[in-house]
């Protein structure tokens, strides 16, 4: 048995990833804006010795509040509160490179990294959609390629800011009255296409140097960006074959970018729906599907496919003619995944909504704990994953069920740590090195 | 005895407000970036039944790291962590209207207000100085008047965002599958001079509606802004007469702006240096002065007075000719206060640095606990203050000394609450009403 271990991330969303989860009798429809809900989830994930937990984000009010719990606590704020309620688990916040000045975002992440003792991670997104753009003075979203060019420059600026204090800047010499060594402060003096940032960060270098860099876009631009910067990648894959191809491609791109392929961890999303028998699991899945309000689902699908509202029929397949991925501005790879899923399984709109309602394109898998563990082990050992992004359909119950029933199996098979051991940074949990400071020159060997 | 009670705010800064505090044997020169330091301070302030605690901020690395502890934890992040470590005390963060998009700041404050159970406050600043501007793509700071015009529009946008959900938007009707009432969502659709913000906030309306609005600029623009928006004002006043004039002026301006003068609380800053005798207090003050490194102090003073570096002599008075306040871009009222202090007391540069080293223009007062309580009572009862911004010279010891020795006297005199009682929002602690939602029309009386 290899000593290679699974990396598990808990993707926390409202009362669960299934859009109808809030309608179940057990669910609290106010939970998504209550700290206690997230504290319970974080502690459950920590009981399951997960590497990290994760919050998605976009700076806009999504969709229609009639449909499902809307609004959220801002991720960096919520994760800071969770940092004080946990001890080991990593805390990964989504934040956009399109709508926040880099100086502000760099200092907030550095602060969270200090407060959490080195447990901060950043899921870097460029934020698709005109709705977000219109909250920040723009009429339309920047083009996909431009968003990624801006993201790359944003990263360069942020890395300069996080390195702007050397680790040993603070002298704290009370006797002479000299607190710090000014020669170890390196103002970025950055003048680029999108940003000009002159001065050093006003936060000392944090325990990890900077947060774990995570990425989740699977478009061509997204994969190129991941190969260059990302240390962990979240991805939506429906089949083992597709997941293996994605995994091999991303590792190869990372090598081509001059990096160690071990320094990028690939985590496909999985929506486990558990039952003590397969039939019970499928029945649990059916209960969720039965709570979907289809008029909402049709409108969401029309929006994703960039079709006029009212153009889809619930009990027909998708139209034969659809735009190509190239013509889509927004979540390009999600678009292609959804269209291919519908074509491959010849799903009606109703069937497609049922499949997407649980995972929005992520792999939904209903089964017994053994079956879920088998699936995870297969993908993990067959070159498709370094770990998984666990996306319970219903929260908190689905996460507790995974921790209570699947985690013990994974541990028994030697695939998952049985305890955290000493305190580690998030990067250490993922088996990644602490980054060097770009301004510190390694002395030449004599 | 009136039932009117003092409002006390703990202004937390590093190892204390005195610039040399970090050099004392008792001080930890790393404390300013350690969560535990602030948790201890917050709990001490809560033991003293303070209304709130407060963090200053600017998005730049101030001055020279050689001089004193530099860098900080970002205030909204730090206060979120402190929200989970406290139960009653208000949490006031400084944030700039010049360098953050309003959508982002509005959602972070709304999130903190929810997480803290209604204890968030916002000290609104426009951020003086070219150093900050150059971290955000500008070559120089915007002019003083333009910064305030932008701040007023920022407030209007933020208030629209905080009101964009009516309080009763969430229906949570599981049976029908309707979560929220879309008719109670009000997108700002704001198109102004500085900002365009289309969509509703992605956070439901918070316990306070929005954070307590605090302001601290005492320039003409600052006072006009305070009269229109502020619910609490921090101010630096050196004499009872000046403080009375400021207090009367601000209350009159608030009435002229159509507001209740009781709905703006004026809190001058005080730097108490305590001793069991007056002589011991003065000796404690002298120890701090003896730790000042004068070359730093001269440079800071030259920067404040906008004089060339090297132009001041340590043992001479200020030059007879200095720029007028009108010619100063930046902290205008602080400039005038410092010049008037030096002229009034005929201080040498060395003497002025000694006076400013403790409070940067705020009232430094060395004395016994009785004397400090007398000072506070006089200002409170003589029309100069609704409470105080307590700025200990040394932290944590100075705050603990105030709570242990001055607070009991104020309580015995009936000037300060003896316990918090039931949980309240920050606005309730300050005796202010919860703001109405601008989009909800009060029905006409029949």
UniProtKB/TrEMBL annotation, chains A, B:
Where along the chain is FMN bound? 57, 94, 144, 148, 218-219
- Which residue intervals define the domain Luciferase-like in the entry? 28-384
Pfam families on file: Bac_luciferase (PF00296)
- Which GO MF terms are attached to this record? monooxygenase activity; oxidoreductase activity, acting on paired donors, with incorporation or reduction of molecular oxygen
Q: Keywords on this record?
A: Flavoprotein, FMN, Monooxygenase, Oxidoreductase
Q: Which SUPFAM superfamilies does this chain map to?
A: Bacterial luciferase-like
**Does this UniProt record's set of keywords contain Oxidoreductase?**
yes
Question: NCBIfam families from the entry?
Answer: FMN_nitrolo
> Which protein family is named in the record?
Belongs to the NtaA/SnaA/DszA monooxygenase family.
Name of the protein in question: Monooxygenase
What organism is the protein native to?
Streptomyces griseoruber
């Amino acid at each position: 048995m290899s000593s290679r271990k699974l990396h598990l991330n808990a993707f926390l969303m409202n009362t669960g990833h299934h859009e109808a989860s809030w309608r179940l009798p057990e669910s609290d429809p106010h939970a998504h804006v209550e700290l206690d809900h997230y504290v319970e989830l974080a502690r459950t994930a920590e009981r399951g010795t997960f590497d990290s937990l994760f919050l998605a984000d976009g700076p806009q009010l999504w969709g229609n509040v009639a449909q499902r719990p809307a609004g959220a606590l801002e991720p960096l704020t919520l994760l800071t509160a969770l940092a004080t309620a946990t001890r080991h688990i990593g805390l990964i916040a989504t934040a956009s490179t399109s709508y926040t000045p880099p100086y502000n975002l760099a200092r907030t992440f550095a602060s969270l990294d200090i407060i959490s003792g080195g447990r901060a991670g950043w899921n870097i997104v460029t934020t698709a959609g005109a709705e977000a753009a219109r909250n920040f003075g723009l009429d339309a979203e920047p083009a996909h390629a431009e968003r990624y060019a801006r993201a790359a420059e944003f990263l360069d600026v942020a890395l300069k800011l996080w390195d702007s204090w050397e680790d040993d800047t603070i002298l704290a010499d009370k006797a002479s009255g000299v607190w710090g060594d000014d020669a170890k402060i390196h103002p970025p003096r950055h003048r680029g296409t999108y940003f000009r940032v002159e001065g050093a960060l006003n936060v000392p270098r944090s325990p990890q140097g900077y947060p774990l860099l995570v990425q989740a876009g699977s478009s061509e631009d997204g994969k190129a960006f991941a190969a260059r910067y990302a240390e962990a990648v979240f991805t939506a894959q429906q089949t083992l074959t597709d997941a293996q191809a994605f995994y091999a491609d991303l590792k190869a791109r990372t090598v081509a970018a001059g990096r160690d392929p071990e320094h990028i961890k690939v985590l496909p999303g999985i929506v486990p729906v558990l039952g003590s028998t397969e039939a019970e699991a499928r029945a649990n899945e059916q209960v969720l599907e039965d709570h979907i309000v289809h008029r909402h689902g049709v409108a969401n699908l029309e929006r994703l496919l960039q079709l006029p509202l009212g153009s889809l029929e619930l009990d027909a397949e998708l139209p034969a003619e659809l735009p190509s991925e190239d013509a889509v501005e927004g979540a390009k790879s999600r678009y292609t995944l959804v269209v291919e899923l519908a074509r491959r399984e010849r799903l009606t709109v109703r069937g497609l909504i049922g499949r997407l309602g649980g995972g929005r394109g992520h792999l939904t898998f209903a089964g017994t704990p053994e079956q879920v563990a088998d699936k995870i082990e297969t993908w993990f050992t067959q070159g498709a994953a370094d770990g998984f992004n666990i996306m319970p359909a219903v929260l908190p119950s689905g996460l507790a069920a995974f921790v209570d029933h699947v985690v013990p199996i994974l541990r028994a098979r030697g695939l998952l740590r049985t305890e955290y051991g000493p305190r580690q940074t998030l990067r250490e949990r993922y088996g990644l090195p602490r980054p060097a400071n770009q301004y510190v020159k390694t002395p030449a060997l004599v």
